[in-house]
Amino acid sequence: MDFTKLDGLVPAVVQDAESGEILMVGFMNETALDATRQSGFATFFSRSRQKLWMKGETSGNKLAVRQILVDCDDDTVLLKVTRLGDGNVCHTGERTCFYRSLTDL
């Protein structure tokens, strides 16, 4: 992975492995990617808190990683996941972070 383009981070697109629905986008540094691979659960780097966080660590809505794909430039990953808990991924309680249309803003 090329972690040099975004100050040590790569975007991580999260997709439901069964439905294909895009659930969220986070960022990973090398440590977060290693933690995800080792634990099997999506772990990200929080840019605002400057620390690692596992999705669902407090809510129970973890993301079990089924497959990790890398884009052609080695600077973005796609995580195909199975949602655990109540299945809602967004911190607002929505199923996906992509629930609003640009025209709604």
Report on the structure:
This protein is mainly beta and 105 residues long. The chain has one domain (10-99): Phosphoribosyl-AMP cyclohydrolase (Ubiquitin-like (UB roll), Roll), CATH 3.10.20. The protein is 10% helix and 35% strand. It contains 1 helix and 6 strands. It has one helix at 30-39; strands at 10-16, 22-28, 43-46, 51-54, 63-70, 77-83. The protein has a 4-stranded mixed sheet, covered by helices on one side. A two-stranded antiparallel sheet has the order 3-4. Strand 1 (10-16) and strand 2 form a beta hairpin. The chain is globular, with a radius of gyration of 13 Å.
Largest sheet: 4 strands, mixed
| CATH architecture term | Roll
* Total beta-strand segments: 6
How far is it from the N-terminal to the C-terminal residue, by CA? 35 Å
Strand order in the largest sheet: 2-1-6-5
- Classify the fold: give the CATH topology: Ubiquitin-like (UB roll)
Q: Summarize the amount of helix as a percent range.
A: under 10%
Estimate what percentage of residues fall within beta strands: 35-45%
Spans where pLDDT lies below 50 across 5 or more residues: none
Count of helical stretches: 1
Our count of domains comes out at 1
Order of helices and strands: EEHEEEE
Mean pLDDT level: 95
* Radius of gyration, CA atoms, in whole angstroms: 13 Å
- The helix-and-strand class reads mainly beta
The CATH superfamily turns out to be Phosphoribosyl-AMP cyclohydrolase
Concise description?
The protein is mainly β and 105 residues long.
